[in-house]
Amino acid sequence: MSTQEKYLNPFTDFGFKKLFGTEVNKDLLIHFLNSVLPDNVTISTLTYLKNEHVGHSAMDRKVIYDLYCENEKGEKFIVELQKARQKYFKERTIFYSTFPIQEQSKQGDWDFGLNAVYSVSILNFLIDDNSYAAKQKKRGEKASVKTIAKLMNIDTKEIFYDKLTYVQIHIPLFNKKESELETFEDKWFYVIQNLQRFQNRPEALQERIFDKLFKTAELAKFDKKQRMAYEDSLKYYRDIRNVENTAEERGKEEGKIEGKKERTIEIAKQALAEGASVNFVCKITKLSIQEVENIANSLKE
């Protein structure tokens, strides 16, 4: 393999499905979900369901979930891993969560009784700059790695509907060191964030459930077909990250340019307001005559 990593990258499609999306490793998914879901949710068994939902119309056909499962109570779980920021991510998540609700409908006399639906998103980014976690970070507060959302009555602050839950895990915000890991939730976040960087199994991850995880993730045990599939998946992941990083850097540069432009315009306005000539303002700001004349006209309005 071209990679020098000892363990797979769980943010690749291959890696995520290898760890959590197979019958033989179903116990890993159950343990992970029991660690991150609200305390009142406990999963004993899971059944993988068809992760391609064929809707009733052309508009909602072929909705693909990463993992789609059902527990012994008939509760549904959508588990997704997202590598890079997406536009309308929240809307997309809500849209996806409607299908497990709709498919519970029954023909004939039905009282609309529904089983709970849980949408769990493992994110390698912050949803957007207006998210709760992003605002915490801007205020210099400790940002929440995991956020849980439900439908709420905005006046009473009480839960309006308790059977639809969105769990979002922002892996980039997790910053605990190995010595600071306390709960299984901490340990799962630490593993997901750092698995591909480990050369040896950390001392803090000695529980039996992690025995299986590290054995499953060890690249040296892959056969040729698995290695090729993983390499393809890793390349795709790296391409996405490169595109995202390039766009981020371009945005920063454009922001700097825009900031300089705004400052230059403010200087021009101040100089013109103090009686400076158009030619003089052009000379000190490097703006064109037309730009300075437009600024001067705006001051007269």
Would you kindly provide a written description of the structure presented here, covering whatever features stand out?
This protein has helices spanning 13-20, 26-36, 89-102, 132-138, 184-194, 208-217, 224-273, 278-285, 289-300, and strands at 46-48, 52-53, 63-64, 67-71, 76-82, 117-123, 146-152, 159-170. It has 301 residues and is of the alpha/beta class. A six-stranded mixed beta sheet has the order 1-4-5-6-8-7, sandwiched between helices. A hairpin with a 6-residue loop joins β7 and β8 (159-170). α7 (224-273) packs antiparallel against α8 and α7 crosses α9 (289-300). It is extended.
Condensed summary:
The chain has helices spanning 13-20, 26-36, 89-102, 132-138, 184-194, 208-217, 224-273, 278-285, 289-300; strands spanning 46-48, 52-53, 63-64, 67-71, 76-82, 117-123, 146-152, 159-170.
Descriptors:
15% strand; 6-stranded mixed sheet; 301 residues; two-stranded antiparallel sheet; 44% helix; 8 strands
The succession of helices and strands, N to C, reads HHEEEEEHEHEEHHHHH
The average pLDDT value, as a whole number, equals 83
Largest sheet: number of strands, sense, barrel closure: 6 strands, mixed
Helicity level? 40-55%
Oligomer: single chain
Question: How many helices?
Answer: 9
According to DSSP, the number of beta strands is 8
Fraction in beta strands? 5-15%
Helix/strand class: alpha/beta
Low-pLDDT sequence parts = 54-64
Q: Give the N-terminus to C-terminus distance in angstroms.
A: 68 Å
Shape: extended
Strand order of the biggest β-sheet:
1-4-5-6-8-7
